[in-house]
Design goal:
Elements: E1 9-14, H1 17-25, E2 33-37, H2 38-41, H3 48-53, E3 59-62, H4 76-86, E4 92-96, H5 104-112, E5 116-123, H6 130-139, E6 147-153, H7 157-168, E7 174-180, H8 184-193, E8 198-202, E9 212-213, H9 214-224
Parallel strand pairs: 1-2, 1-8, 2-3, 3-4, 4-5, 5-6, 6-7, 8-9
Length: 225
């Protein structure tokens, strides 16, 4: 398995205006794409559109649901309008599994215009059982060109093993799995080596506990391949 897993794409998370300055000061070889955490940047400054346009990297637009760790308690209607605003300048959108039906028109628009969709689930309290995560994956549509992203709190190695099995049980699809909490950093390296298609790193402060700084993450993954 180790010889077959591909190196994941590294995502640099932009969660503050300062992160725009930081991303311009590090080598582009440290990451493959960036995530715009629009919920954390909201309400944005007038300078934000220019800063986004000047980023010469593929971009993920994320307006995280407050029920899954989103900032600023943004209501659903506003989140949808923010997605629609930023969709034209991004290559991916990240929509929570819980909102898959409600945001179906947005997803259809994204996919019809060549954008990719990340369907995500976050649990800040625990790692659900493998059967529960598999059922969530099945509900995500099992669409080959989509990414199913799962981030859970990992307190024991058995939690990490659940995420490993989710990846290995669905080899024909793209799964991005990552841990948060006590074993978060260790889990992210193990999962990246065992088939997670995305690995997220911070530019400033970690967005969630267990997230590596993106340059350190890049160095470690390079040593592992």
């Amino acid at each position: 398995m180790l010889t077959k897993a591909r190196k994941p794409s590294i995502v640099a998370v932009i969660a503050s205006l300062r992160d725009f300055d930081d991303i311009s000061s590090i080598s582009s070889r440290s990451f493959d794409l960036c995530e715009l955490r629009i919920d954390k940047l909201f309400p944005s400054s007038d300078d934000l559109p220019r800063r986004v346009r000047e980023l010469p990297f593929p971009k993920i637009a994320t307006v995280r649901d407050p029920l899954e760790g989103g900032a600023n308690s943004i209501p659903e209607s506003t989140r949808l309008s923010l997605f629609e605003r930023w969709l034209p300048v991004c290559n991916f959108i990240d929509v929570e599994l819980r909102n898959l039906s409600r945001f179906s028109k947005l997803i259809q628009e994204a996919e019809s215009t060549g954008k990719e969709v990340i369907v995500s689930f976050h649990d800040f309290a625990k790692t659900p059982k493998l059967e529960e995560l598999q059922e969530m994956f099945d509900r995500s549509g099992r669409v080959p060109n989509r990414i199913f992203k799962v981030a859970t709190t990992v307190s024991h190695w058995s939690d990490v093993e659940i995420l490993i099995h989710l990846i290995q049980n669905n080899p024909e699809f793209r799964v991005a799995a990552m841990g948060m909490g006590a074993l978060g950093k260790l889990s992210r390296l193990a999962l990246a080596r065992l088939g997670s298609c995305l690995a997220y790193g911070s530019l400033g402060a970690a967005v969630v506990p267990g997230q590596w700084p993106v340059t350190r993450l890049s160095d470690l993954l390079s040593e592992m391949w």
